[in-house]
Design goal:
This protein is an alpha+beta fold and 215 residues long. It contains 7 helices and 5 strands. The chain has a 5-stranded antiparallel beta sheet with strand order 1-2-3-4-5. Helix 1 packs across helix 6 and helix 6 crosses helix 7.
Length: 215
């Protein structure tokens, strides 16, 4: 992945880290684009006012992901899609490890992008969906002093208790996050199997953690 993609997708993913003032219940009755606009705007405001997050406080970021991101992002579906057909052959313990390591990879890889957030605003594009649709694509742009960043979301509306919109894929600069990792993971699995992918992700996370401490 090129550096521009990594930088911008990091800012995108971690916009949701500052989701401190919203609750899952509010998402139940909202249109998908209204949901995305609300949390994006709230998160931008939080990040701009939180010095430690702007400085890339990784411990704080990971803690916030654990408590605030999970209700709004379907990491299980994201991980299963990224792993591909091999996901169905993985044991429950392997699936758990894959999801844990994938989440850490995303957070650690992109945490440094928090420091890039300054004067950005969110501009929503017209939603092409019917009210009864359960899966939609919400399109938007992040605009600031530099070139606009294309930012699209795939969302699903979950039924029952805790229902509401959940994000299961992100598109930054024309590249879908899950598909990007699917190609990488497929190579790892073909070469070393599921356990090999888990070990590779764990090693990558350990390296990223060491590098962030040095920084």
């Amino acid at each position: 992945m090129n550096s521009r993609f990594m930088k911008h997708i990091g800012a995108v993913l971690l916009l949701f880290v500052g989701q401190l003032v919203s609750t899952p219940a509010r998402a139940q009755d909202e249109a998908a684009d209204a949901f995305v606009k609300r949390i994006s705007t709230e998160v931008l405001d939080v990040i701009k006012s939180d010095k430690s997050m702007r400085s890339g406080d990784l411990t704080k970021v990971i803690g916030l992901v654990d408590t605030r991101i999970m209700p709004f992002m379907d990491f299980g579906r994201m991980t299963a899609s990224a792993v591909g057909p091999a996901w169905r052959q993985a044991t429950p313990e392997q699936q758990k490890r894959l999801q844990e390591e994938f989440k850490i990879l995303l957070v650690r890889t992109y945490s440094g992008a928090l420091s890039q957030i300054s004067d950005q605003t969110i501009v929503m594009k017209p939603l092409r969906a019917s009210p009864e649709d359960k899966e939609v694509v919400v399109r938007s742009e992040i605009r600031g002093s530099s070139d606009p960043i294309q930012l699209d979301y795939r969302l699903e509306k979950t039924p029952g208790q805790g229902s509401g919109w959940r994000i299961y894929n992100l598109n930054v600069l024309g590249v879908w996050l899950v598909e990007t990792y699917k190609s990488q993971f497929s190579q790892e699995i073909n070469a070393k199997g599921i356990d090999g992918l888990i070990e590779s992700l764990a090693a990558r996370n350990k390296s990223n953690s060491a590098n962030s401490k040095k920084g």
